[in-house]
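Hi P.,

Sorry for the delay on this. The queue was packed all week, but I finally got your sequence through. Input first:
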Amino acid sequence: MDFSKLRVLVVDDDQKISLVIVRFLKVLGFLVENIIVKTSTKEGWDYLKSDELLPSVIFTDFRTEEEGKNGYTFLQQIYEEFVGLPVVLMSGGHDLSPEQIGEFSAFLSKPYGLKDLKIIIQKIFS
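Then the structure:
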């Protein structure tokens, strides 16, 4: 699959994690100019509301939080406003139930590798 035209929004307060995701996405064929990185759910939401071109997929960290919104509440907000937009939850630890995790398009457990990311991307866009 050609990923070069797809846009990705990454929301994570850990810049090291964001850089790893960007590096992996570039290896998979995503263009760096189509990868948008935000460091809080507020920044992610502001981007979604202001940009005319929605991302093809959003990766959000569960623990990234601002103004009381973590990755899960961010997901709920996205799904209310942007029905059908794929959201991948990334987490190294969480207290979500399997039902809550099932609300996401996919779940990426930290630490993860390129192979894990590729499987998730293929699942979403197949």
